[in-house]
Every structure is written in structure tokens, then in C-alpha cells.
Amino acid sequence: MAYSHQTPSYTKQCEIININIIIDLNYDIFWGEYTGKRIDIDEFLSDTIVMDIYGVRVKTLPPLKAMVQLILHHYKDMNSIFLLATRKSIKYDMFKDVYYLLKNNLDTITLDKLYAMSSRYEIIPYVFYILYHTGQVFDDEILRQYIEAFKTPEGEALLDYYGLCVKEQKKWKCDFKTRLEAENLYDLIKDDLTEKDKEKIAINKRVFLGVSE
Q: Smaller CB count within 10 Å for the chain: N or C?
């Protein structure tokens, strides 16, 4: 658990409709390997709002913080060696999430507000990384303005690499389109993994997936 931001998943079996509902309990919006400034989770949740979704009242983040949480979540999915090795963690729907959350909330997720919050939380390179890749999927002038505003040398330096910390970072040997369309991401990285990487993947499989190898 020292290198995670969540507990193992809880699963509720629904016999009536024959599905399992899986819930991840997150206690940090960063990842376990993150060494930068942490975001106080109580402060982050201090201004939650209640929304009505198909007749169900749900407490959720306001759009601006929802964008921050979504960006950090997708950055983790796109860069976690464990997730890249065990599932299709780079998907078209990820970028739809970002694009339509932005486009449907331009009045509250303004460029100035998103930049100010990202600066306060010291996450500008990660925001650029996700916006840049969203821009590879959606050709949109407003989105391009956000991408340009968030561009930094630190953010651009992340684009060709994966890994959630410097010691695990590796350069991609294929372009983004190949990653997006690949069904098995593990095949794209397996030749670059060290024995330590493989050991970490095996440990996380036991803890989070209940799989022993």
C-alpha cells in the first residue's frame, strides 16, 4: 500500500441483473509514486455539490475540481507500468471525458481558473500532458488555446515517456496513435521492463487483482 493511492477494490455481486459492481476507495488524487506537493484531500472536497442523476442525488466535485481530478486520474492510467501491463489503460473514452467535461462547462472551467488552480496545486505539466493528448483526438480551437497556455518545457518533456516516477520512466518506442489503437499495451512495453518493474507488477497483481504468478 505504500505505493498506491487506493485500497484494493470492493466488489458487490448483484445477482438480480448478474453483474458485479466494483468500487475503488481512493484516499489521494495523486499516485503512490508521486513525490511532489500533495493536495490536502479535505480541502479538495470542501466544496462538493449535489447533482441529480436520473433521479438519484449524488455528491460530486464541482466541474473545475472534477477536471483536475480527471486529468490526474488519466495521467496515472496512461503512465502506470502496472496498469499498462494489465489492462487497456489508454482508451479513446478517456479523451472524450476530458473534452466534453471542458466543452460543457466552459463557463466554470475557464482557462484562467484552470490555470490558477493547476499552478496552486503544482500540476501544470500533467495538465498539459493530458490536454495535449486530448488535442490529438479532438481538433478544436478552444482546446488548442488551453494546450498552448499550459505548454511548458517540463510538460513537453513528459510526452514521449511513460512511468510515474523518474526511476521508472522509459521512452515510448511507438507513437500515440499506436498506443491508442493497441489492444495489448503490455506488448508495447514488455521488452523495456526491468526485473524490478516486473516484481512490482507481480506484487500489485496479488494485492489489487488477487492474482498469483
A: C
